[in-house]
Amino acid sequence: MENIYSEEQKAVTSVRASQKTIDFLLSYSKSIHVVDCKKHAFEVTLN
C-alpha cells in the first residue's frame, strides 16, 4: 500500500460543460422526486 501512495499522481484535467448541458442537468434534477412507501423509496421523474 505504501507503493501506491508514494508514487506521484498524474495531473487531472478539468472538463468544461456547455451551458446547454448544465441547464439540462439542473432541470432534470429539479424534476426528480423521491416517494417513500413503507420500506421502499421510489424515484419519480416528472415530465
Structural features:
alpha+beta
Set down the secondary structure blueprint.
Layout (H helix, E strand, L loop, with lengths): L1 H5 L12 H13 E6 L2 E6 L2
Antiparallel strand pairs: 1-2
Structure, described:
The structure is a single chain. The longest helix has 13 residues, at 19-31. The protein has one domain (14-47). It is flat, with a radius of gyration of 20 Å. The chain has a two-stranded antiparallel sheet. The protein has helices spanning 2-6, 19-31; strands spanning 32-37, 40-45. The termini are far apart. It is α+β, with helices and mostly antiparallel strands and 47 residues long. The mean pLDDT is 82. β1 (32-37) and β2 (40-45) form a beta hairpin.
Strand order of the largest sheet: 1-2
Return the structural class: alpha+beta
Question: What is the mean pLDDT?
Answer: 82
> How much strand?
25-35%
Number of strands: 2
In helices, the fraction of residues equals: 25-40%
The sequence of SSEs as H and E is HHEE
Low-confidence stretches: none
The major beta sheet can be summarized as: 2 strands, antiparallel
The rounded distance between the terminal residues' Cα atoms is 48 Å
Outline type: flat
The rounded Rg comes to: 20 Å
Q: Count the domains.
A: 1
How many H/I helices? 2
